[in-house]
Predict the 3D structure of the following.
Amino acid sequence: MHEYLAPDFALAGNEQSNGLTFLHRRLGSDDIYFVTNLQPEASETAVTFRVPGKTPEQWDPMTGEIHPVFVYRSQAKGVEIPIHLGPYGSTCYVFRSQQPPAYVSETNLEEVRELNGREVQGIAGQNGEVRVTVVKNGQSKTAQATVSGLPEPLAVTGSWQMALEGYGFEKLEKQVSELQSWTEDPRTEHFSGTGRYQLDFQVPERCVNPNLETVLDLGEVGSVAEVTLNGKAVGVTWIRPYRLDVTEAVQTGPNHLEILVTNTLINYVAGEKGMPGGPEEHGAPSGPVPYTQLKVATGGL
């Protein structure tokens, strides 16, 4: 019988990765993995890290926040963790040489937020039965519960008030019922700057509840979106998926949504008819201003 060294980073079923990759470093007795998804699609799979007997925690490279990892499996070849990364997303796992008081080995919850002596708190994405298997001191116990009353996703639609303002562009204001890329309209094809979108919409009572977490999905954004809901700033997003937690700002009845979308200078540059001029050898510059001196209104972003 031949023994072999298990992979340092193995996907479920030893599948070949289509873009999920990693870096592994050691600091003292701790193992540190940087995991990144190089795909334009989300990556959801279980990964076994070759660090048997260690306890993981997750470090968010975007915010610097550190969270315990509640859901994983401790196996002879390592620790298996279900990975959920958005397009081009990344995270860090730090494995420490300590045994946890308890952990969740299996669940159909979307996320486990808390795990204490007698209670598990998590996020369910749909109505129905949820299951949780908790391992403590080598012993496992499975509990079940029924989730009901989750509303269907609410489409935010209506008449948007749009205002575009940027360098070398006459301010444009109009109402639109459907949102589309600025490049699809000949008048705004080469616009670079900030677009302000405002919308009033209704939220039914069933969608606002202390036990509900509300997320605003912006779809596709090019390139940065700053969102305010009912006068409360809820965040800025510039990477996929373009989603923000609006639980503290959404309210039953009328809501006012405001989104500032700012793109890059590429649209403006693409519309230029030739190379920019440079300064003369003597005297004042002639020709268009060099691109390095162009300024774009960014709406305060």
Q: What stands out?
A: The chain has a mean pLDDT of 87. DSSP finds one helix and 22 strands in the chain. The CA atoms of residues 200 and 256 lie 5 Å apart.
